[in-house]
Design a protein that fits this description.
single chain; alpha+beta; Rossmann fold; OB fold (Dihydrolipoamide Acetyltransferase, E2P); six-stranded mixed β-sheet; five-stranded antiparallel β-sheet; binds adenosine-5'-triphosphate; binds magnesium ion
Length: about 375
């Protein structure tokens, strides 16, 4: 296995950049996840690393070797595609061993490698079947197995779970994580599923419109997103974004005063009447009580019982005619709420994130507080 290092990689199609100035280094053995909305350039990055696409500019290293000019088959990386094509006329065993045989491995090595991989992916009982005799989930595992059997320098996985149903997706995700813990192969994994990104990654790279928005471990990206795009992309339901004004002491959200925590106040150092977008995650909002003073009043629009908690989608009530904001709140499953109820809400103020409404940048993290 080896590190994978992208240095200022740009890929243009005619004049449009699919990815622009991408720089990151995945250390040997780590599991990194590229995440972002459709069309943001995830597959282009993987294809460039695999050598299936050529960067317009920039350098790519696998280990210490500059591989810009190295053809795909000599890069020793294994890619599993979004639509994991298996060879339909080959059995599972032949599919699994294909890459090894192409590289001239001897029969004994092939056999033992296939047996180990098949066992670890729970497909040992399927070795004699053809792909059409397998379920989607089984085919997916064969595609992963084919990559693993080669023992490459790095795995490049492009949405490998996207064709599975929810249950199988959860199971296979956990299997993948275990597999990585056991094999420790450098892995770059593409998904637009933020749960996969959060649960699998050592580091997440968030992309939007071909550019890196933020690189970090899942917890810090979740707690301190670099900008509003990251804040609303990671987390389900997403972070609430509430337009607010600020007078140097308090924020005002649609006429509701929200005290500004001291450390934020020091960081913001405002002139008069600034506008910000305040971010707060649903789990940092609770029903106001004797011990938790009320900050906002909302009207319940939709109630979604999720078992472990209830998700309430509500509308912020304005004292003056202002923009209507939606607020997502998570409450305990025993709370009784119905559509139309008015709820007093308390915000955990030290979890507020302040965004510049023009650029979307997180102003807390820029000030390093
Ligand atoms: N061969 C091509 N010619 C022109 N534009 C392309 C080509 N391949 C990709 N693009 C463009 O590059 C951008 C990035 O595409 P890419 O496939 O990397 O996105 P993605 O993040 O993998 O999206 P998805 O989640 O839908 O798979 C898109 O805007 C796409 O239209
Ligand atoms: Mg893609």
């Amino acid at each position: 296995m080896a590190r994978v290092y992208l240095e200022n990689i740009t890929r243009r199609y005619s004049t449009v950049a699919a990815i622009e100035d991408i720089t990151f280094e995945v250390p040997e053995g780590q599991f990194w996840v590229l995440v972002g909305p459709s069309g943001c350039g995830k597959s282009t990055i993987l294809r460039t690393i695999a050598g299936l696409d050529t960067a317009t500019s920039g350098n790519l290293y696998i280990g210490d070797r500059l591989v810009n000019q190295v053809p795909a088959r000599e890069r020793d990386v294994a890619m599993v595609f979004q639509n994991y094509a298996l060879y339909p006329h080959m059995t599972v065993a032949e599919n699994l061993s294909f890459g090894l045989r192409m590289r001239g491995a001897d029969a004994k090595t092939v056999k033992s490698r296939i047996e180990t991989v098949a066992q670890s992916l729970n497909i040992a009982h399927l070795l004699d079947r053809k792909p059409r005799q397998l379920s989607g989930g089984q085919q997916q595992r064969v595609a992963l197995g084919r990559a693993i059997a080669r023992q490459p320098q790095a795995f490049l996985l492009d949405e490998p779970l996207s064709n599975l149903d929810a249950q199988l997706r959860d199971d296979t995700r956990a299997e993948l994580k275990q597999l990585h813990q056991r094999l420790g192969v450098t892995t770059i994994y593409v998904t637009h599923d933020q749960v996969e990104a959060m649960t699998l990654a050592d580091r997440i790279v968030v992309l939007n419109q071909g550019r890196i928005q933020q690189i970090g471990d899942p917890q810090s990206i979740y707690a301190q997103p670099a900008n509003q795009m990251v804040a609303t992309f990671l987390g389900s339901p997403p972070m609430n974004i509430l337009p607010a004004t600020y007078n140097g002491n308090d924020f005002q959200i649609n006429g509701h005063p929200i005290p500004c925590p001291t450390k934020l106040r020091e960081a913001l150092k405002p002139s008069l009447e600034q506008r910000f977008n305040l971010g707060i995650r649903p789990e940092h909002i609770q029903l106001a009580s004797d011990t938790h003073p009320q900050h906002l009043t909302v009207e319940v629009a939709v109630v979604e019982p999720l078992g472990r908690e209830i998700l309430i989608r509500s509308v912020l009530l304005a004292e003056s005619q202002g923009r209507i904001s939606m607020v997502n709140v998570q409450v305990a499953p025993e709370v009784r709420v119905t559509v139309g109820d008015r709820l007093p809400l308390h915000l955990t103020l030290d979890r507020l994130v302040v965004f510049d409404p023009t650029t979307g940048s997180n102003l807390n993290s820029l000030q390093n507080i």
